Amino acid sequence: MRILHVSDCFLPRLGGIEVQVDELARAQRAAGHDVTVATATPGPDAGRAVPVERLVAPLPWELPVGRSLGPLLEAGKPDIVHVHAGAVSPFAWRAVRRAGRAGLPIVLTVHSLWGPVSRSAYRALFAGWTRRPGGLVVTTVSEAAALPIRRVVGARAPVRVVSNGIDLAEWCRPPERMPRPDGRMHVVAVGRLAPRKEPMTLLRLLREVAARAPVRATVVGDGPARARMERYLRRHRMDGWVHLTGRLDRPAVREVLAGADVFLAPAARESFGLAALEARLAGLPVVAQAGSGVAGFVESGREGLLGRTVPELAAALLLLAADPALRHRIAAHNRATEPVRCTWPAVLSAFDGCYELASAKTALAHL
Fold first, then answer.
1. Cβ atoms of residues 15 and 27 within 8 Å
2. Based on the structure, what is the number of domains in the chain?
3. What burial letters (b/e) apply to 173-203, b meaning 16+ CB within 10 Å?
4. CB proximity list for 1: less than 8 A, separation 6 or greater
5. First-to-last C-alpha distance (Å) of the chain
6. Which domain holds residue 8?
7. With bands split at pLDDT 50, 70 and 90, how would you rate the model's confidence at 13?
8. What is the pLDDT of residue 132?
9. Per-residue pLDDT for 278 more than 90?
10. H or E element that contains 352
11. Do 335 and 348 share a structural domain?
């Protein structure tokens, strides 16, 4: 099958969508498919296993708007156009409309949790979809993300949940726990330091917990909120026990997780939480929002503790700090239990089903 993946953002820009599109494309190529990625993100591609078409428009700040996808669709003649969208994805949505006009099967994967602004924008974009000749199937990464999408899409297209994929062998291993000579619980967070990930909520949580229990923290990632976080840490004298590492590669992230006790993911609008899944596979109890996508693979009391408010998340951290036996029980469960639906074979099979459905809808539309 000839598969064309389309994404506004792609490597070397680092984020959840970029990593997932790259790994999905490589997994499909390994399964025997002819796979290409089209993106509006500039960057080098030497040695990349999957061909990348960088349709970069000469705009200020390298905005991912991109050039027309039309010539690539005509030359490549893909069997399926798999578009990846976030909260705001102009290049991706133009690709949906262009592929629709060409009568091609389309799978649109939404990687974000739509808020009021996104819902309004996409409601207008979907309004005319029934006039398109191509078959459209919408997927998203969790039931939490699927709810607002189904309200917007209605009967215009089926909406399916397909988990993000992960290589269990890369993360499923008993971590080499480092000693705690000071008795402090080590809390780790991993992710882009951007407002959507609520990094300031993370720091306020840590500050509240540290006033009542011995903890230290490591925050892995970089982004526009880092300078503000550093000022907050200095102002509240937290820079001695909260360490901002900046961006780390995967081996370094695994090393950080190996020396941690708990993983914290406080963002309420987390559509999936790939970093939390990696931590869960590494054996860490996960503390996260009950209404986020993390709840799709973390059940409170089994793989971690969930809360709906900041005080509830703080209480969960305090409980884990006071009860090492609970931490160890959850960690043992996480290391022994595989989230099967997140494995690449399961994800590839689910997308194959979506591709077949989109192709069948396209064939019907052309009758």
1. no
2. 2
3. eebeeeeeeeebbbbbbbbbbbebbbbeebb
4. 33, 34, 79, 80, 355
5. 22
6. 2-165+343-365
7. confident
8. 58
9. yes
10. helix 344-365
11. no
Q: Are residues 116 and 219 in the same domain?
A: no
- 188/206 same-domain check: yes
Alpha carbon distance 81, 213 (integer Å):
51
Please indicate, yes or no, whether residues 16 and 51 belong to a single structural domain of this protein. yes
**Residue 295 reports pLDDT greater than 90:** yes
* Token pair listed for 157: 């297209």
One-letter amino acid of 192: R
CB-based contacts of 297: which residues, under 8 Å, 6+ apart? 163, 273, 276, 277, 280, 303, 339, 342
d(CA 134, CA 55): 23
Report pLDDT digits (tens) over 202-248.
999 999 999 999 999 999 999 999 999 999 999 999 999 999 999 99
Same domain, 85 and 230: no
* Residue for token pair 């993946």: 5
148 and 203 belong to one structural domain? no
Beta strands 136-140 and 159-161, pairing class = parallel
Other beta carbons within 10 angstroms of residue 30's beta carbon come to 13
Note the pTM of the prediction, 2 decimals: 0.87
pLDDT at res. 123: 83
